[in-house]
Amino acid sequence: MPENKHLDLLEKIRGNIAGVIVGKREAIDRLLICLVCGGHALIEDVPGLGKTSLVSALASSVDCSFARIQFTPDVLPSDVTGFTMYNINTGEKQFYPGAVMSQIILADEINRTSPKTQSALLQAMQERQVTVDGVTHSLPQPFMVCATQNPVELTGTYPLPEAQLDRFLMRISMGYPEKSEEVAILQRNRTANPVTGIKPVATAEDVLELQKALGEIKCAVSVMNYIVELAAFTRRHQDVSLGASPRASIALMRASMGLAMLEGRDYVLPDDAQKMLRPVLAHRIALHSQAYIQNQTHEGILDSALRGTAVPGLA
Q1: CA angle 210, 29, 260 (to 5 degrees)
Q2: What digits encode the pLDDT tens for the residues 116-129?
Q3: How far apart are CA 10 and CA 225, in angstroms?
Q4: Angle 25-37/4-18 helices, nearest 10 degrees?
């Protein structure tokens, strides 16, 4: 079993975020799984549902450096990674770090900036370092990118390429609140933004310890085979033009480990992989154009994978 201190810490962070985000337990838990897995999150939904507040609440709950990048068409790669220029006093080149040199990054409306600027995040997200003018700079640890985008309004946007999407551990959707939840939201926001009242309940060292503890979660070979079979199903499906890669299989396994940890288990169940399948794989596969005409969806393909793949026993 995961240590009680790890579960207590996760519960404190979850409770802190829930003090701002009403009723979105699934979205909160998925963001926490990204945190313990050392992964990145793509939060996608229509405006006004709390995407930015969710990330701000997480950043306020852990005592890590935080930077928000408001992506627009005129944001340059150097604004993200940093740049070097000569110091007139010393005559030497000096590195001026960009916003990415923080531990938690909010990449707000990431699809509103150019592909060139989007790609500036690629090395940072995959390798936890950036190279500027031939010099490599390591990023602070822990490091997490939480990007938001609006999937409805496409005017003035640049769709994220597959290589960029593949760097996100999960795609998280918020969804509209229930009536009672929306009333609670109004009550909490009547006088001030509730995010401003959050105090940190964890340190950067605590987060790194949680990420290290993830390695203690066991994943049986039978469950690994199940994960590989689910990924392989997407590769041979007639409506899929780009199936899940081995990186996607790794992401599904680690997300399943994160869910097990969040639920207080030190082992992964097939049920964990089933629950994580949509948020981990839906944004990583591409469909043929004919499939869209026939109203086929990424989620529908993954549901077919669940129905068509035998569930292993744990004996």
Answers
A1: 60
A2: 888 888 888 988 99
A3: 29
A4: 130
